[in-house]
Amino acid sequence: MPGAADFSVIELNALIRMALIGGGGGTVDGKPVTWADRNPEQLVADYVFPLPLMDRWDMALAVLGARVEGATPALPVAEAA
After folding, report:
1. What is the pTM of this model?
2. From first to last of its 81 residues, what are the pLDDT tens digits of the chain?
3. Distance CA 54, CA 49 (A)
4. C-alpha distances in Å from residue 58, one per residue of 26, 32, 39
5. What does the alpha-carbon distance between residue 57 and residue 63 come to, in Å, rounded to a whole number?
């Protein structure tokens, strides 16, 4: 099964947290944001911990895929249509 591995929930959370730190920011609603004024630990506590385990797994797998294969930024909604 693709994506099958033996990761603990602690490792999934750590991978997502490190991706936030390493990524340094992103785009939200078409506007750039940085983590300079945000705490990655708090972001994980607020947005990752409440997720079901399978959603965390999917997120961690997407992070690893982007790292290995590269990632293409999503188009803004207006351009994607």
Report:
1. 0.66
2. 455 667 788 888 888 888 888 777 777 677 777 777 778 788 888 888 899 988 998 988 888 888 888 877 666 666 555
3. 12
4. 19, 24, 22
5. 10
